[in-house]
Design a protein that fits this description.
Aminopeptidase, six-stranded mixed beta sheet, 3 helices
Length: 121
C-alpha cells in the first residue's frame, strides 16, 4: 500500500492536491506510524463524494487508536466539501474497523464496500 502511495505521488497521478483533498500523517517519536488520504471519489459522478485512500498504520502501532484518529480527521475535513465518504476494502478486519467507525457495508458496488454519510455540523 505504501509503495503504491509513493509511486502515485512520484508519477503525479495522486498528490491529494485537488479541492477538498488531503494526505495526513500520524507521527510518533519523529517517525511516521500512520497515513491516510482523502480524495474526490474518482468512481463517482458527483464532486460531493469523498474517498478514503491509503489508510495504513505500522504493525507496531496498530490497535492504539491511530487509525481511528486518522479516519476521524478525514471525516472532519469532509464537512462542507463532501456529502458522503466511500472506500473499498477486502479484509474482514478492515470491514470491522470501518463499521465500528460508523460506515455501513455496501453490497453490489464493485468500486465501494463501505459508505458513510457526512452530517452537517
Amino acid at each position: 500500500m505504501l509503495d503504491r502511495l509513493q509511486q502515485e505521488w512520484k508519477e503525479g497521478t495522486n498528490r491529494f492536491d485537488q479541492a477538498g483533498e488531503i494526505l495526513l500523517l500520524a507521527m510518533q517519536n519523529q517517525q511516521v506510524v500512520g497515513v491516510c488520504g482523502l480524495n474526490r471519489d474518482p468512481y463517482s459522478n458527483s464532486d460531493r463524494v469523498g474517498r478514503v485512500r491509503r489508510l495504513y498504520v505500522s504493525a507496531d502501532s496498530r490497535r492504539t487508536g491511530i487509525g481511528r484518529l486518522l479516519v476521524d480527521a478525514i471525516q472532519l475535513r469532509c464537512h462542507g466539501v463532501f456529502d458522503e465518504l466511500r472506500l473499498r476494502t477486502d479484509t474482514p478486519a478492515a470491514d470491522a474497523f470501518y463499521r465500528a467507525l460508523g460506515f455501513r457495508r455496501v453490497e453490489g458496488d464493485p468500486d465501494c464496500t463501505h459508505l458513510r454519510e457526512i452530517a452537517d455540523r
